[in-house]
From TrEMBL, chains A, B:
Its EC number is 1.6.5.9. This is NADH:ubiquinone reductase (non-electrogenic). PANTHER family: EXTERNAL NADH-UBIQUINONE OXIDOREDUCTASE 1, MITOCHONDRIAL-RELATED, NADH DEHYDROGENASE. Keywords: FAD, Flavoprotein, NAD, Oxidoreductase, Transit peptide. It catalyses: a quinone + NADH + H(+) = a quinol + NAD(+). SUPFAM superfamilies: FAD/NAD(P)-binding domain. The keyword 4Fe-4S does not apply. It comes from Pedobacter riviphilus. The keyword Lipid metabolism does not apply.
Amino acid sequence: MDLQLPKSEYPRVVIVGGGFGGIELAKRLKNKPFQVVMLDKHNYHTFQPLLYQVATGGLEADSIAFPLRKIFKGQKNLIFRVTKVTEVNAAENCLQTDIGRINYDYLVIATGSTSNFFGNKEIEANAMPMKSIPEALDLRSLILQNFEKSLIEKDVHKKSALLNFVVVGGGPTGVETSGAIAELKKHVIPNDYPEMDFSKVNIYLIENSPELLGVMSPQAQKKAKDFLTDMGVQIMNETRVLGYDGHTLTLQDKAPILSSTVIWSAGVKGQVLAGLDKAEVVRGGRLKTDTQNLVVGYQNVYAIGDVAAIIDEETPNGHPGVAPAAIQQGHHLAKNLINIKENKPLEKFKYFDKGSMATVGRNKAVVDIGKIRFQGVFAWFTWMFVHLMTLVGFRNKIIVFVNWVWSYFSYDRGTRLIIRTFAKDRSVDYRDEVPAVKEEVKVS
Amino acid sequence: MDLQLPKSEYPRVVIVGGGFGGIELAKRLKNKPFQVVMLDKHNYHTFQPLLYQVATGGLEADSIAFPLRKIFKGQKNLIFRVTKVTEVNAAENCLQTDIGRINYDYLVIATGSTSNFFGNKEIEANAMPMKSIPEALDLRSLILQNFEKSLIEKDVHKKSALLNFVVVGGGPTGVETSGAIAELKKHVIPNDYPEMDFSKVNIYLIENSPELLGVMSPQAQKKAKDFLTDMGVQIMNETRVLGYDGHTLTLQDKAPILSSTVIWSAGVKGQVLAGLDKAEVVRGGRLKTDTQNLVVGYQNVYAIGDVAAIIDEETPNGHPGVAPAAIQQGHHLAKNLINIKENKPLEKFKYFDKGSMATVGRNKAVVDIGKIRFQGVFAWFTWMFVHLMTLVGFRNKIIVFVNWVWSYFSYDRGTRLIIRTFAKDRSVDYRDEVPAVKEEVKVS
């Protein structure tokens, strides 16, 4: 059954995903001769770089998310629908969604990435991912529930598992998350849990490769390691995780770790839509595209952002899965779609690397911008400034700023609420994010 | 099995419930010769008067809740546990909880109230209550999901049901909620849903009795009615709700209303604990107490706040179920417990009525303070000031203030996120608020 959408004389661009890339593209097509249809399974945009602060009680979920409808307020050529795309039917230029079939003239896949468990079903079932707001809130609940449970647990092994927090993956997310848990341990636990022997709280950061922050400069890598070590995080480099059954984390050639909280930030993969079987999926589950973001094998299907890999001589592995790359690709694709409409020649995508940064804790961050590298307090303020500026929405900027100022002076983290009670037995229900209600309205 | 708690030479006061009354009592016992054990099923205190703003996208959940552990920071004679009390065994001076048995010398029931469906199971299963953070977030999600669904619904009856919002109960909560939905309709829908014919959005406020705000002055009642009518709320006084199957609201002697969103604010009842079968439960499901808040029939079991009814010649129906009454009873009981310890005579509780107020919308509120009655802009600022001052936590005050200032100037409501996808089929799982995980930690 076709989804009814307002009619338009212009070609229809369907964008799947309201992340950085999708939003940039849609906004750049404002007042242009296209009908833009934006689809997302949520009604909001998620500012993923700050999810870890939601998960560790530093920020409220609502301050790092922004209603998608509000982003496109006043954009007359845009239609937004909350839905999940179930399949692409490229032969017929249409999408199947859970609210009906949608035809397109141009399809843009901007679905981003999801946690990559590298095929390990046991880890996938038991470790905590942190790629969406509901997942971050579940993790926050789990951390707090485990603190509460540790107080009443008599068995020493079980108690130890409840107080061992393991972060797997030493990229920016893993570094930031383990640092944030270390700050919870230092500043919040002694106040909140005076009965707890907080020397028993252990934070492990496990990374397969010899260094943390693989993409950054050696200076940044070393400094991040020093910062984390000072904060009490136990860094385990060159350590391979074999399995996790919800209680015991098994490692290659090393003793297992008992833990009730394993946070998985060891990798991501593109969220490829079903039905695109002709497309080449390259390393990291990304769709291979040409330098115009056209998916290889298709005429009118594009991919941008984390789900796309522009494979070229200069970029044999595509571009990094970061917000600036997605935004630049969205911007660039908008220009090219307009070029197509105006029969102008297409331009090749050029990535402008804005650098990379990671925060470790209070007054501690590392920044690489081209050849410029700095760490410490100034890096931390730079990190905060850049994130505040990138955050969508003026209200959100203020709320996040207030929270940061508050935390800075009080050493506190304000949002320690268990509002989505996390229960592993019901994880499927709890993690399900798609509006699943099928209501029959009886007419009397 | 007994719950292990730190030993103490002092008598143990167990307080069940971290609402206004329980917190006040616990704080007043700081540095006094008692061991205070506070139990709550949540790890946070909920500021119930602002739940309706969470449900209608005006405030984030985290800004009206406050971690209970933080409230009692530094109070050495207090132990807090997240748990659900399953039964009172007064003969043995102990409580059964889902984390073990707890003995008490004095038991204080401060469990507050819950929605009263007056025995109608059909309404209970289908209408939306709004007495806790998870319920308010579920309601927010339902309202937003119904807006989204209305866009794709082709059947006119179903579409109409999705856009008919019914609030049952014309007390302060019902007045405030229907007013907030009317503001969503006026300021948010036209921007967010340009495709929607928002003249089809109807808001009904249904009340059994001839007036709204039964406890307030005739001036306040009339003005609230005028305000709501101006804002487009359809007020139906002297209307009795018979049933609601999730789709059709059946009324006595009136045509039924098709609605997918029925919000229940028609009454509350005390959350009486199981096992107190000797106690007299009076109207509204409250525990009958004497003027020292001692539950009738017991020697060392007290009740304060919404769950308590001090039945006396002067107060044949007890005191109103409002925050000031709970706080005053908590304060008073603390004094009496100390009096008992010091063998001093006990004092009788005297209620000081601080007045009542309700907000209807922007610049519109009604206030009664004794003989002083005013309505309109100044009443609205008074309402906001009083609520900001009563809100627990400095961070929360700032965040709520920022949100209100933001909404005032932007006519916007910032937190329109569907973060707890609401599905009626799974309502039991989703509404369950008790930490339900029973994990077995395998020791390798």
